[in-house]
Design goal:
With about 525 residues, the protein is α+β, with helices and mostly antiparallel strands. Helix content is about 40%, strand content about 10%. The protein has five domains: about 35 residues, no CATH class; about 130 residues, no CATH class; about 110 residues, no CATH class; about 30 residues; about 170 residues, no CATH class. The protein has a five-stranded antiparallel sheet with strand order 13-12-11-10-16. A three-stranded antiparallel sheet has the order 8-15-14. A two-stranded parallel ribbon has the order 1-4. A hairpin with a 4-residue loop joins strand 11 and strand 12. The termini are far apart.
Length: about 525
């Protein structure tokens, strides 16, 4: 009987059911699962709210004596920036990559081996000042105190939220008011009107009427001058309502150039139809206002430089139009066959005596760069082709560092759209620093570093009638607090200057589980 029972127990043991977690452990129970992840969770707190632990039996005096001279991780980070110049190059969440936290001695030590990354503890979006402190700690370098975190460009703010607003890390209408006010100081009225169009068309403005009421007077000086010059009585005085209608008429012209109308923006004042442009459609006027002599001269110049295939295509198109055949076939991509793998490079592109380095390539492509980098012709005639965006970023950083002048960093505001979960789950799963680290083709970087004289490329169609198209090459002429002024350096509109503000951009070409929406200037160095 006992033998039978033992056999039955062995049989039942073999058929024993185990749960999913135990089955997973038995299948994947490798040694790597016993290793801890090299991630350091960084704590932070508001001024005077440092966390301390104590037992129930300890007296309050004893706790105060013990904690009086102890510093938190964040306070020790401030002390590290005071004593170590090298530490000032990193933000709070970057410090664990170069320094090790010694819990016993409560101090940061230089990392000698290994690798570690830092992560700021999660804060709910309703946690107030603590959330804004977390945002500043992930952006500001070299801070030595809470007060230094609240100081931006020499101005001290009473709250962390105001400091975030000054850095452009928060999304509200104050940014557009600041942009308009800053650009109005030293810009022409026509530029201010174009900037206003960029903002209301490409950006999310909550109170468009207030934006207009506060800044319309900066848009009318040239209009008033022209009317006085053409008026019978040059001393005629216009009412504010009339001046607004004159400015709105110019705004309506600019809106029509981008396929919109003033009537679509009901928050703005609507002038009588007598003030607005009447007659033919703007697109029809533009298409019938070409300089025929200039077009004929360009045709003769281009025609004589066409090769055999281009001439044949031209003849086919003209024949199809004249006979109304409409049977133009698409051009097939030619198939190129190489007889051998070796490609011979012309000798003038090679110099075996010179070391193959990034610096030498830049010097060869851009000779006398420091004396010519502000020349539009010099910049538009040169370019370096690279296989990946990562190489592009490295080359651009090297070139930008060689340009004299102050370096300006413009941070973007990133958020995740089209996410199925709640706001709490979204903030927890995708913190701001993770969204900032994402680099997607077609979107500008999170923190472009710009200088006056840097060549950039426009990444978004703003106004094709003004030459502001995707791919337009421009040169930065002024770096302002909330936007930049750029000068077009190629095409028909070469020499024209425009203000480029931040605007919301998104990319659908991504494998992310959400839609990344980045509020940034549509510029790529």
């Amino acid at each position: 009987m006992e033998a039978w029972m033992m056999e039955m127990i062995k049989y039942l043991t073999k058929l024993m059911h185990i749960c999913a977690s135990e089955a997973t452990y038995r299948i994947f129970g490798y040694h790597i699962h016993y290793r801890s992840i090299s991630v350091l969770c960084l704590s932070f707190h508001l001024p005077g709210e440092r966390i301390c632990t104590f037992t129930e039996s300890e007296s309050l005096e004893k706790v105060v004596r013990r904690e009086q001279y102890k510093h938190s991780q964040l306070e020790t980070f401030f002390l590290l920036n005071e004593s170590d110049v090298n530490a000032r190059k990193y933000t709070y969440d970057q410090i664990p990559q170069y320094y090790v936290w010694n819990e016993t001695d409560r101090k940061w030590c230089v990392q000698k081996k290994g690798k570690q990354i830092g992560r700021l503890l999660y804060t709910h979006h309703s946690s107030g000042e603590l959330r804004y402190l977390r945002l500043l700690l992930s952006k500001v370098r070299g801070c030595t105190s809470f007060r230094s975190l609240q100081t931006v460009n020499g101005v001290h703010y009473s709250t962390f939220k105001d400091a975030c607003k000054s850095l452009g890390l928060l999304d509200d209408d104050n940014e557009w008011h600041a942009v308009m006010k800053e650009c109005a100081v030293s810009s022409f009225p026509a530029q201010i009107r174009q900037l206003f169009i960029h903002i209301i068309v490409n950006c999310q403005v909550t109170d468009m009427r207030k934006l207009w009421d506060d800044h319309w007077k900066h848009m009318i000086d040239d209009i008033l001058l022209k009317r006085n010059e053409s008026a019978i009585d040059p001393n005629n005085v216009y009412l504010d309502k009339q001046l607004q209608f004159f400015a709105l008429a110019e705004i309506d012209k600019l809106l029509k150039s981008v396929g919109k109308s003033l009537k679509q923006f009901r928050q703005l004042p609507q002038p009588p139809s007598t003030y607005l442009q009447s007659g033919k459609n703007n697109l029809v006027i533009e298409e019938t206002s070409y300089n025929l002599d200039e077009i004929d001269s360009n045709f003769k110049n281009f025609f004589q430089h066409c090769n055999t295939e281009q001439l044949q295509i031209f003849k086919d198109v003209v024949h199809s139009v004249q006979t109304n055949a409409g049977d133009i076939q698409p051009i097939q991509d030619p198939v190129v066959q190489y007889e051998e793998d070796n490609i011979e490079i012309p000798p003038n592109f090679c110099d075996p005596k010179i070391k193959n380095s990034v610096e030498n390539m830049i010097q060869w492509t851009y000779p006398n760069f420091l004396s010519q980098y502000r020349s539009p012709n010099y910049l538009s005639e040169r370019a370096i082709l690279t296989p990946t965006n990562q190489v592009v970023g490295h080359l651009n950083s090297v070139i930008v560092d060689t340009i004299p002048g102050d370096l300006f960093t413009y941070y973007s505001i990133d958020r995740a759209g089209d996410f199925g979960g709640t706001t709490t789950k979204l903030s927890f799963a995708f913190p701001p620093e993770y969204l900032n680290s994402i680099s997607i083709p077609g979107l500008p970087p999170h923190d472009p570093k710009l200088k006056e004289g840097v060549s950039v490329m426009l990444m978004h169609n703003l106004n094709q009638t003004l030459g502001l198209c995707n791919g337009t090459r421009m040169m930065i002429t002024r770096c302002l607090k909330q936007c930049v002024e750029c000068q077009v350096i190629n095409g028909v509109f070469i020499g024209t200057k425009h203000f480029i503000p931040r605007m919301e951009l998104s990319s659908t070409d991504t494998k992310l589980p959400f839609k990344l929406i980045r509020k940034q200037m549509p510029l790529q160095v």
